[in-house]
Amino acid sequence: MPTRPRPRRYPARYSAFSLLRHGLAGDHLVPAWRDRELKNSYDVVIIGGGVHGLATAYYLAANHGITDVAVLDKGYVGSGGSGRNTAILRSNYLTPEGVRFYDRSVRLYERLAADLNYNVMFSQRGHLTLAHNDSSLRTMRWRAEVNKLEGVDSEVVGPAEIKKLVPYLDVSAAVRYPILGALYHPPGGIIRHDAVVWGYARGASGYGVHIHQNTEVTGIDVAGGPNGRRVRGVRTDRGDIAASTVINCTAGWSTLVAEMAGVRLPIQTFPLQAAVTEPVRPFLDAVVVSGSLHVYVSQTDRGELVFGASVDPFAGYSMRGSLEFVEGLAGHVLELMPSLAKVRLLRQWAGLCDMTPDFSPIMGRTPVDGFLVDVGWGTYGFKAGPVSGEAMADCVATGRTPDIIAPFGVERFAEGRLLGEKGAAAVGH
Amino acid sequence: MILLPCPWCGPRNVAEFGYVGEAGPRPDPASAGPEEWRGYLYGRANPCGWVAESWYHRMGCRRYISVERHTLSNEVRPLATEGAGR
Question: Does A427 score more than 70 pLDDT?
């Protein structure tokens, strides 16, 4: 571990004592991070103010002392995928590469509140992936064994144990999709996704990183030479910025941003819809996922049930909800928990998922020198935020691709080394 | 509701169709090299705007149709489909 530079904390540390002091003094709340003037040059420009971009900025500053960094977002921080996901964290993937990667992420999430001095409300309540047929039960067994070899707590459990963990689940045999078993992953759970984004923004800002919201990148300057192309900076709707390193940390718009630098990515963008119900009394501890039924359910601390599904059946950038989604979702949820028939949905929304051919991300350097990507996160980007930020920061600071992201390079498509993580993505695609 | 113009069945709900994807010519097996096949297999334009697409009318006439769709607004315009009479 490199020695960490001391952050210039702004504002002062959060603590029970400071809460009491500010409460008694009747102070106004100070913003969690500073607004700064946009400079015309930075060492590193990060495009996208979501968990990936802000975590990269934070670890660049905290682990490597690189603080001349700007994070640009065309909206507000966390307005994209980071604020639209269903906030589920887990590491029970199928391939050893995937398991190692997400396990590191869960471990970083476990100590994130302490690291950032910000309550991210990580609740490790357990995660159940249901199997409704023999073939998915076989995949669960496979995943459990790979997980255990990699030191991740993961086990196949039967209907009796499932009923104990989630009493409201219908585990009877005479239903259309009987529950034969489940992959139980105790360290999995949910987190407050907004708090993760705000915590990283506050942490990065404390080290002097600039966070520029409502700043849209309109172009990327690339200089071509006999020894290859090299990035020079970015153009934004607020002025040009020179930078020797530019990192594309966007979701939904990743191919459009990469295209600005002349890099073509094998990605197609699909909307993914989610919905939330009115709050009800706490009855659901674990996160429940069914791949066959295309649904995942968790209950928030406020009592709302959060539902997610698989991506929409056709590609696009539209973030409008559809009636087909709600109809399908309701049918599938009631198949699992018939007692929810009278619960009403409060709202639905969509986020954009950048799907790659092998359901694995694209990370690291590109053919354009100085232009890096951390994209193609499909339906599983949020849970990978911290480890991606840490690895991308390593990649920038040392100039070498860290082992943990080496399998995810963009060159794998040309070399025919696809990763095949499809079996372990939460829901069918 | 999003309606797709099927040249055989008329405007029908998008839920009746299977999404095939961006339309484009298949490389010629006699002459295409690995680079070209790779582009055909993995390369996508993925534009935020109008794109030519193929759809399969699986709950209707079970034929393939061509349309142009705006990927942000989901507006659809018909394209000439091979073999369609009108």
Answer: no
Q: Give the whole-angstrom CA distance, residue A414 versus residue B34.
A: 9
Closest residue of chain A to B51, computed from CA coordinates? A316
Q: Which residues of B touch A268 (CB under 8 A)?
A: 21, 44, 46
Q: Which residues of B touch A357 (CB under 8 A)?
A: 41-42
| Contact check, Cβ <8 Å, A315/B43 | no
- Domain ranges, residue B52: 3-78
Supply the pLDDT for residue A28.
74
Describe the strand order of the beta sheet including B76-78 as a list of residue ranges.
B18-22, B50-56, B64-70, B76-78
Partners of residue A410 in chain B, C-beta under 8 Å: none
Count the domains in chain B.
Answer: 1
Compute φ and ψ for A67, nearest 5 degrees.
Answer: -115, -10
Banded model confidence at residue A154, pLDDT cuts 50, 70, 90: very high
Q: Give the CATH number of the domain where residue B37 resides.
A: 3.30.2270.10
Domains parsed from chain A with CATH numbers: 33-118+193-267+358-425 (3.50.50.60), 127-186 (3.30.9.10), 268-355 (3.30.9.10)
Distance in angstroms (rounded) separating the CA atoms of residues A361 and A248: 13
Summary count for chain A: helices (H), strands (E): 11, 19
User: Is residue B33 less than 8 Å (CB to CB) from chain A?
Assistant: no
Tokens coding A173: 């045999």
Which letter does DSSP use for residue A340 in this model?
A: G
- Distance, CA of A115 to chain centre: 18
| Residue in chain A nearest B22 by alpha carbon | A315
Q: Which residues of chain B neighbour A315 with C-beta distances below 8 Å?
A: 19, 21, 46, 71
Tell me the pTM.
0.93
Cβ pairs A/B, distance under 8 A = 42
Mean pLDDT across chain A: 92
| Closest Cβ–Cβ partner in A268, A316, A323 for B44 | A268
Instruction: For residue range A75-98, list pLDDT tens digits in order.
Output: 999 999 999 999 999 999 888 888
A265 three-class SS: coil
